[in-house]
């Protein structure tokens, strides 16, 4: 890649995986000019990153999920806002 300012060759100095995208494989590449102090950042799609993500997912242990414990609460839930409001309008007490 060439520098837009002076035309010299750009050097890749940093690659960061971009996790803000919904699709894995996007990377942010930072380039620095070999002749002047110009820097550029580019968003690049790396098709090999998908296979790396799949390999990482296969090597990670899956968490053991236990079903949630039942809650034994003998008191019924309080009536909602609309139930109380309409009961007041009708002149009744909400249950």
What does this structure look like?
This protein has helices at 49-59, 81-90, and strands spanning 10-17, 26-33, 39-45. The protein has 95 residues and is of the alpha+beta class. A hairpin with a 5-residue loop joins strand 2 (26-33) and strand 3 (39-45). Strands 1-2-3 form a three-stranded antiparallel beta sheet, with no helix packed on it. It is elongated. The chain has a domain at 1-56. It is built from two helices and three strands, in the order E-E-E-H-H. The mean pLDDT is 80.
From the alpha-carbon coordinates, what is the Rg to the nearest angstrom? 29 Å
Strand content: 15-25%
* Helix run count: 2
Side-by-side strand order of the widest sheet: 1-2-3
Number of strands: 3
- Show unreliable segments: none
Series of secondary-structure elements, N-terminal to C-terminal:
EEEHH
- Most strands sheet: 3 strands, antiparallel
Helix content: 10-25%
**What structural category characterises the helix and strand content?**
alpha+beta
Which term fits the overall shape? elongated
* Overall pLDDT confidence: 80
Ends apart, CA distance between termini: 73 Å
List the topology elements:
Blueprint: E1 10-17, E2 26-33, E3 39-45, H1 49-59, H2 81-90
Antiparallel strand pairs: 1-2, 2-3
């Amino acid at each position: 890649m060439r520098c837009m300012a002076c035309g010299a060759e750009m050097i890749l100095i940093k690659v960061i995986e971009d996790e803000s995208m919904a699709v894995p494989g996007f990377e942010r590449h930072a380039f620095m000019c070999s002749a002047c102090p110009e820097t550029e950042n580019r968003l690049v799609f790396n098709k090999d990153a998908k296979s790396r993500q799949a390999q990482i997912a296969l090597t990670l242990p899956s968490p053991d999920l236990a079903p949630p414990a039942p809650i034994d609460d003998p008191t019924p839930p309080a009536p909602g806002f609309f139930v109380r409001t309409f009961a007041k309008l009708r002149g009744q007490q909400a249950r």
